[in-house]
Specification:
The chain is α/β, with parallel strands linked by helices. The protein folds into three domains: about 5-260, 2-enoyl-CoA Hydratase, Chain A, domain 1, CATH 3.90.226; about 295-475, 3-Layer(aba) Sandwich (Rossmann fold); about 480-615, N-(1-d-carboxylethyl)-l-norvaline Dehydrogenase, domain 2 (Orthogonal Bundle). The structure holds (S)-3-Hydroxyhexanoyl-CoA.
Length: about 650
């Protein structure tokens, strides 16, 4: 048993301590042990009240997700948390839950089974089960609406967001917030109570059909294809109709439907893959000192976005380009982007000024010698990048990381332009760099383990999901994207309409169809990627020859007459049919499933090759690249995931 539950008495209050490192997840038997102790101390005469508290950095962060997976796979027995929580709630003596860190999922459900909740002001609570393809399954869908009402419960459970102690206090989810001395405060609070207050015994929450309807519509729009949001809405809606015990039965039915369904398996896989992706086997090396200052060379679209990533993480950054005019344009664009954040309520004016003050534009490489990392973001041309790296090599301090933001070029060739190839690696940001979470860190032949470890750590500080990739054309993401898109275009050449191909893939869950993505990226740019991948020409070359390069020319596969809205264009269909006729390509009908199967198999096959060549560390890393960089539906687990 990897957990401990301890008890001791202070001022007539029994303190039950949970210790289940690292995040006090509820491994099998833990909740039962807490319930047993609560029942035992109910019999102990001198005890007036009970406090439940956790060791380590957090209150209970949920049920043990690995064990949930084992249950779903039939390798472990059913989950019995709900019954244990009911026993805790049944205590005749007041039970106070003392929360620090995060009370999430089964953790918040445990807290709500207590009669009162006290929290440190730094604590956070939430029901994030939906992110795992689940719904709260230990009373959360029935107790939460009784505490905070249907609308708020829907908000929390459908979004899966965590809220601060202050917000939870205002919503009625917790009762008291303290700044420090949580245990002493909880003991004094518990001693003062005298009475129990069972949430399960509270009257049914008022029905709120409008909130339910709005939640359904919102989930259908923002969480297209996902089953858990709809299930949690159903369970919460039931709390206003059914008595508590019946509500719990309904919750159990819906929870099990989700647990044994395919989406929770996929999302649990993603949860662990996201945590594993940052681990480099055998890279236990002395870390380089943390980066205190950064420098970015090239103030174009990518350079600006990258400079913003550093500023957003509080790291001062020099942004260099050849002319003052280029720098002025870059700083104006950066300000505009930040101001847009203010309009959307994401940033305050003060945040904007703080971040702008961290970006130092400069028409020279002055100050580059102070940077712990220098990121080159000039245009995609090997000779230009090599020239820049020779200059950087002359000014960079000995320990600095020299990173190139290339998406196609060979890192080793770029590294040859320096006297220190072991310090060179790729930092492949995705556009817009300040928004997209994915960052491919590319390992060159000579890149040292220290540099890789520091690069992965820096990725985390920049709030990116950093994935280690090998140095091959297109690295992981773009390398797989080329055959995926090729498969989509072949479907079009053989008779599917371009819009049907996009609809098949978006209907399956992709954020955007591969044909439309081409228009967004620029068909001429993608042709270079295709040539680099050694793929043969397609009908797309005809579109390029006709000046249809995508959104930037107002016409690509689609037409963009009315702003950015993509409109199907019959001219394109005619061009495709003419091409197919000339090339003698046999025409046939496609179902949406066939289109999806062809395109996703192409992704998977290239992913296999990448793994076989050691260009990705794990299949899960490839899944993460596609989920965070290419709009692959997380609830399908990623292109390499095939169920458990
Ligand atoms: C649930 O509760 C269902 C219920 O309704 C009941 C149903 C009947 N289980 O993220 P970190 C591991 S569903 C197992 O790097 P941080 C994690 O894998 C659950 N393991 O730390 C990692 O292991 P390793 C609802 C877990 O400080 C280590 O702990 N709860 C669990 O950045 C550290 O994790 C959630 O969805 C778990 N529940 O963030 C909360 N949680 O070191 C999920 C973590 O081997 N957890 N691990 O890689 C989190 O959001 C974050 O872990 C947390 C800490 C915010 C707590």
């Amino acid at each position: 048993m990897a957990f401990k539950v301890t008890t001791f008495c202070q001022d007539g209050v029994a303190i039950v301590g949970i210790d289940s490192p690292p995040v006090n997840a509820l491994a099998a038997g833990l909740a039962e042990m807490v319930a047993d102790i609560v029942e035992e101390v109910n019999e102990a005469e001198p005890v007036k009240a009970i406090v439940v508290v956790c060791a380590g950095k957090t209150f209970v962060a949920g049920a043990d997700i690995r064990e949930l997976g084992e249950t779903a796979a039939g390798r472990m027995g059913p989950i019995t948390l709900s019954a244990a929580f009911n026993r805790i709630e049944a205590s005749a003596k007041p039970v106070v839950m003392a929360i620090h860190g995060t009370a999430l999922g089964g953790g918040l459900e445990l807290a709500m089974a207590g009669h009162y909740r006290i929290a440190l002001s730094s604590a956070k609570v939430g029901q994030p089960e939906v992110n795992l393809g689940l719904i709260p399954g230990a009373g959360g869908t029935q107790r939460l609406p009784r505490l905070c009402g249907i609308a708020k419960a829907l908000d929390l459970c459908v979004s899966g967001r965590t809220i601060t102690a202050a917000e939870a206090l205002e919503a009625g989810i917790i009762d008291k917030v303290v700044e420090k001395d949580l245990v002493d405060e909880a003991v004094a609070y518990a001693a003062s109570l005298g009475q129990v207050r069972r949430t399960g015994a509270v009257a049914l929450p008022a029905a709120d059909p409008e909130a339910v309807e709005a939640a359904r519509k919102g989930a259908a729009r923002r969480m297209r294809g996902q089953t858990a949001p709809l299930a949690v809405i159903e369970a919460i809606e039931a709390s206003s109709r059914l008595e508590f015990a019946e509500g719990l039965d309904e919750e159990k039915r819906l929870f099990e439907q989700c647990l044994y369904g395919p989406q929770s398996k996929a999302l649990m896989h993603v949860f662990f893959a996201e945590r594993e992706v940052g681990k480099i086997p055998g890279a236990a090396v002395e870390a380089l000192p943390a980066v205190e200052k950064a420098a970015v060379l090239g103030a174009g679209t990518m350079g600006r976005g990258i400079a913003m990533c550093f500023a957003n993480a509080g790291i001062p950054v020099r942004l260099s380009d050849q002319t003052e005019a280029a720098l002025d344009a870059a700083m104006a664009a950066i300000r505009e982007t930040y101001e847009a954040g203010v309009k959307k309520g994401k940033l305050s004016e003060a945040d904007v000024e703080v971040r702008l003050a961290l970006i130092h534009p400069s028409a020279s490489l002055d100050g580059f010698d102070e940077a712990g990392i220098i990121v080159e973001a000039v245009f995609e041309d090997l000779e230009a990048k090599q020239r820049v790296f020779t200059q950087i090599d002359e000014v960079a301090r000995p320990g600095a990381i020299l990173a190139t933001n290339t998406s196609t070029l060979d890192i080793d060739e770029i590294a040859t332009a320096t006297s220190r190839p072991e310090r060179v690696c790729g930092f492949h940001f995705f556009s817009p760099a300040h928004i997209m979470r994915l960052l491919e860190i590319v390992r060159g032949r000579a890149t040292s383990p220290e540099v890789l470890t520091a690069a992965m750590e820096l990725g985390k500080r920049l709030r990116k999901t950093a994935v280690l990739a090998g140095n091959c054309p297109g690295f992981i993401g773009n390398r797989m994207f080329a055959p995926y898109r090729d498969a989509a275009i072949r479907c079009v050449e053989q008779g599917a309409s371009p819009w049907a191909v996009d609809e098949a893939l978006t209907g399956w869950g992709m954020a955007m169809g591969p044909i439309r993505v081409g228009d967004l990226s620029g068909l001429d740019i993608l042709r270079e990627v295709r040539i680099a991948a050694g793929l043969a020409g397609t009908v797309e070359d005809r579109l390029i020859a006709a000046g249809r390069l995508g959104e930037k020319t107002g016409r690509g596969w689609y037409s963009y007459a009315a702003g950015r809205k993509a409109e199907p264009d019959s001219e394109v269909e005619e061009a495709v049919r003419a091409y197919a006729g000339e090339m003698g390509i046999e025409q046939r009908a496609f179902t949406a499933d066939e289109i999806v199967e062809r395109c996703v198999s192409a992704l998977r096959m290239e992913g296999r090759k990448i793994l076989d060549e050691g260009m990705a560390l794990r299949a899960g890393d490839i899944d993460i690249v596609y989920i965070h960089g290419y709009g692959f539906p997380a609830w399908r687990g990623g292109p390499m995931f095939s169920g458990m």
